[in-house]
TrEMBL record, chain A:
<feature type="transmembrane region" description="Helical">
    <location>
        <begin position="12"/>
        <end position="31"/>
    </location>
</feature>
<keyword id="KW-1133">Transmembrane helix</keyword>
<feature type="transmembrane region" description="Helical">
    <location>
        <begin position="247"/>
        <end position="269"/>
    </location>
</feature>
<dbReference type="InterPro" id="IPR035906">
    <property type="entry name" value="MetI-like_sf"/>
</dbReference>
<feature type="transmembrane region" description="Helical">
    <location>
        <begin position="191"/>
        <end position="209"/>
    </location>
</feature>
<keyword id="KW-0813">Transport</keyword>
<dbReference type="InterPro" id="IPR000515">
    <property type="entry name" value="MetI-like"/>
</dbReference>
<keyword id="KW-1003">Cell membrane</keyword>
<feature type="transmembrane region" description="Helical">
    <location>
        <begin position="103"/>
        <end position="124"/>
    </location>
</feature>
<dbReference type="GO" id="GO:0005886">
    <property type="term" value="C:plasma membrane"/>
</dbReference>
<keyword id="KW-0812">Transmembrane</keyword>
<dbReference type="GO" id="GO:0055085">
    <property type="term" value="P:transmembrane transport"/>
</dbReference>
<keyword id="KW-0472">Membrane</keyword>
<protein>
    <submittedName>
        <fullName>Peptide/nickel transport system permease protein</fullName>
    </submittedName>
</protein>
<feature type="transmembrane region" description="Helical">
    <location>
        <begin position="292"/>
        <end position="313"/>
    </location>
</feature>
<dbReference type="Pfam" id="PF00528">
    <property type="entry name" value="BPD_transp_1"/>
</dbReference>
<feature type="domain" description="ABC transmembrane type-1">
    <location>
        <begin position="97"/>
        <end position="313"/>
    </location>
</feature>
Amino acid sequence: MARFLVRRLLNYVVLVVLAASLAYLLAAATLRPRANFEERSPRPPASVVDAQLTAFNLNDRTPLARRYLTWASGLVRGDLGRTWDGDPVTPELWRRALVSVRLLVLGTVLGGVLGVLVGAFAAVRQYRTSDRLITVGSFAVLSTPVFVLAVLLQIGAERVNEITGVQIFEWVGEYTPGETGGMMGQTGGRLQHLVLPTLTIVLAQVAVFSRYQRHLMLDVIGADFVRTAMARGLTRRRALFTHGLRIALIPVTTYFAYTFGLVLLGAMFTEKIFGWHGMGEWLIDSINRGDVNAVAAVNLFAAVLVLLAGLASDTAHGLLDPRVRAGR
Amino acid sequence: MPSRGALLARRLLADRRAVLGLALLAALFLLAFAGPGLVRWSWTDTDFTAMREPPSSEHWFGTTQSGRDVFALTLRGLQKSLLIGICVAVISTGVAAVVGTVAGYAGGWVDRLLMWGVDLLLVLPAFLVIAVLTPVFRSAWPLLVLLLAAFMWMVTARMVRQMTISLKRREFVLAARYLGVSPPRIVVRHILPHLASLLIIDGTLNVSVAIIAESGLSYFGFGVQPPDISLGTVIADGTAAATTFPWLFGFAAALLVLIVLAVNLVGDGLRDALDPGHRRAPGGGGR
């Protein structure tokens, strides 16, 4: 198992370096931080702009290769450079990452677990009413882009607030600025703000995972080892959930790495729509501002995360399926 | 292969989901291309007498803040989204078929080179590439189609390659080879037909993936550029005021969801129709 994981880890490190470098080169070659200075009025003199841009390693008149080397050597020391207006990127990256974590963790975990359970349940009850309802529901959600789903939830929440006359749901930002009421009030306020974005993420996740899990579970329902377990005296439900689910989970762990990337992408919409100042929002804003180092940092972070998710799924795969550990 | 095609069509038409999806798609196409003829407003018109008014007999879907007819705008967006979705799906599935079969059949350094390209494109951050290239394809949507397609074929190409490698060792391919049939001919005549089901399903599902991807990019302003519009740009413009002026957002959002739903239904029906080991519902077929 250890050797297997080390080999995968090496492979992942090469991929991260490649992906991060490509992202930097692309951003540095196409984005124009210079425009931010040229739009100012009065427009600063060219020499000042050049000096400023050079100081932050953003000058498009410096050869791309040299800018890349400066960035890469900074990266090795753990320095991700500066934004176009001179703030260091690294602390901002961590701050933004924490916001995104607060937004995403609950929804992702809840969505994944619920999705697997719902899918397994639907498979066991194949073609009955409950299975059909789940299928119709997941199809409807799958066909709804995140940015439509989120707004629909907001409209629904607005109606509920109106009808009850109480501000039950909040959907702008992470908390209400100037919230009073001590610890309890603040925690409550944060939870209020968390409900709608979390629901958005959970719904989308459940739809995807339940579809996959249903198909996978159907494949193992008729398998010999499940029949054997039932012949040994286990009930159908026990046989399916102790033997079937374990095998059916293996492909899902692999799939998890892919969906993790999708969650990150979906986070851009969720953060933008619900006004959370997380990584996704930062990426969009930085691309619009031509902020090369910030864009490169977000992409590096995303690449590392996706590959960590891949490593986690490899580990889970190894734990669930002993054949993998033997080192194929 | 007419018999196979006929069989597929029969199975597909026995599937209630697929029929519903196909009907929905046909209706959407009709709406997108015949609908604009029904009203006197074009998507470029501005009605200065009606600004941000709710749906009425004059403006079926209401008007925007600047007095543009939402019905005309939405249908224009619908046309663009349908067109982009289909073009992207055809191109990406086509590329996947070509790259996958060539890599699988040729093997050796060709295979290694192509698979290296696949890996490279998989690690490239697709969103970033398309977003930063937006200024380049300003108002030239075919370039957006090419870019979207460029990032959607890799996983399918891997699957095609794997299947090609196993088909290559089958007797009928070996027989053709010993008879001196040229490799391109073998790929087209003997290998591709066996991949048809995979490619058809992939193509169908890619339509919905492409439409969602395009509208998502356009939502952030990185996709279709003004003055041109897609469902994504209409939705993005309507989102901020969605709770107070729901017609600015609702119609475009509903149409977007309907397209994707229709395509997914057809795709799912196709998957079942093409899967020989498919378990039928009790009582058979489309009940």
